[in-house]
What does this fold into?
Amino acid sequence: MTAITASGLTKRYGRVLAVDGLSFHIDPGEIVGFLGPNGAGKTTTLRMLAGLVRPSRGRCQVLERPVPGASLRQVGTMIEEPSFYPYLSGRANLRHAALLHGGVTERRIDEVLAFVRMEQAAEKRVRAYSQGMRQRLALARALLWEPRVLLLDEPTNGLDPAGIAEVREALRKVADGGVTVLISSHILPEIERLVERILAVDKGVLRFDGPLQGLLGAAGVGGFDYELEATDGDALLSALSDMGLEPARHGESGARVAVPQARAPELLAGLAARGVMVLEARRGSATLEDAYLRLVGAEGRPS
Amino acid sequence: MRAAFGSLLNATRAELFKGFRKRRLYVLAGLYWLLLPVVALIVAAVLDHNLTGTFADQNGQITQVVQGFASPFGLARLALMAPALMSPTAYIIAVALFAGLYLGEERSQHMWKTVLAVQPARMAVLAGKVVAGMVLLGVLLGGALATSTLGGALGTLFLPTSFAGPWGQVAALFALQWAQLLAALLLAYLLVFLVRSGTLGIIMVIFLPALLEGLYTVLNTLSVLRPLTRFNAVFQALQLKQAWDALPRYFFNPNLYAPARHLLQPFLQSTGTPQGADLGPLSGLLGRGITLGHAAAVMAGYALVFGALTAWLLARRDVE
It folds into this structure.
């Protein structure tokens, strides 16, 4: 049983190829991060999976049934900017969605409002909502009929750090309940904390599909970044180069260097053996952001 | 089949939920339901008070006039007829407003992606919008029948009026007029969806049929004034002149408002105008001898075409 399957998914808008032969499958209960620079084809792919856009070629399935089709009733979506009827309250917007979908009780509306902590603002008209409140309400709407699959496009857009953390925890809880989540976001530290697997696209082409650690390794950042401070900066740089590393000067007597995971234990011993007196060493692990930037280029464009 | 019906029911309930929360509906209903009976009763009271028993009231003519438009039946007849004699008609204004609410707003508020993600059965969504629009039109027309009857009943307390009148006919005409508005609603939905703009679609539905019919009149006048023109020459050559001449019988507006304007004919006859007489500009209002059966058939055809086109567009269009 697969939750989401894309087979040669392609979308062309006139001369522009937005998505080019994307193929992947996602198992039930997986949380998958969908990464790529702006215009990479993420939203178009999510729209095709949600049945909003027809593929030019290829096909997609949700819960092993073709899209568009009945299985979409078990999908919750947040695609791009959340939209609502501004003259209706938050609760009325949810009630409208509940009626439209069918099979949703008033109690469930209260539950999702409480889940996204919007009970207090539920009776306000949506036109008075902040961006963060709209994001939360959109998440509540996506969860309304207890979907088995969630397609989320930038769900933390416009949220403050506390809101981002709350949404992360909410999604973690949802996923713990066995819901499959495909989430795109530009806030990479959040993706890193949330997902187990990454799909990275660029120019409509799938560039990476695998576990998070795999992306770190594939991008050559399966190691640590060190910030070192020594009594003699020149000697430090010279010793690091001598060890086959590529250091960069940092301040008067310091250096920054990326060290492969396997060679990390020998770093300080190697410097001591070369007569370098290390005053301070700080280690940071390579992040998804580093890996992502190496994959698609420092400007967020392909390298 | 059962699932499709369930989706249609869900979509209809959701659209009605939204529709009944729109203030413009209540403004429109207030104007339609209250303004007409109030004005008619005031005018009738003034006529009755000032003219009854005067030289103008020979053989009880004032009483007849007051009974004609301020009795319960007279007011009900007026509530059906008057909106169809305005320009643009109140019916097309209501239809345009509902098209703006149910289709235009989905675009202006970027709600299509949400609506179709929540309810992926596109045909059910469209059908729900059509049913909801027809229900709201039914509420408007039914409410007008009820409030005008009620207003007329109140009028019997201070006016020389009674409940007499062919109620069955006027109720049937209300029902037929409501049914024929389906074609107008579908045209409005089609135009709003086609031009991807609520405002432009609304403007088009109000003016496009009249514009096309006006264009025909201009072309027809040219071809009548000049025995041989490039237009009638082509039609003569193709032996289509007869079809061209018969075209007005299939025009949108005269057929759409035929039930409401049908009530105008007995009124004109009561003024001594013979049936089939050339009424000049009024002939257009009366539908040039269009029967109710013909009008119903023509509007059913229009509804079928507009409905099929709208469904086809919605089914194939990507939602951005």
Notes: The longest helix of chain B spans residues 122-155. Chain B touches chain A at residues 3, 6-7, 9-11, 13-14, 17-18, 21-22, 105, 109-111, 113-120, 122, 125, 316, 318-320 (CB under 8 Å). The two ends of chain B are 29 Å apart (CA to CA).
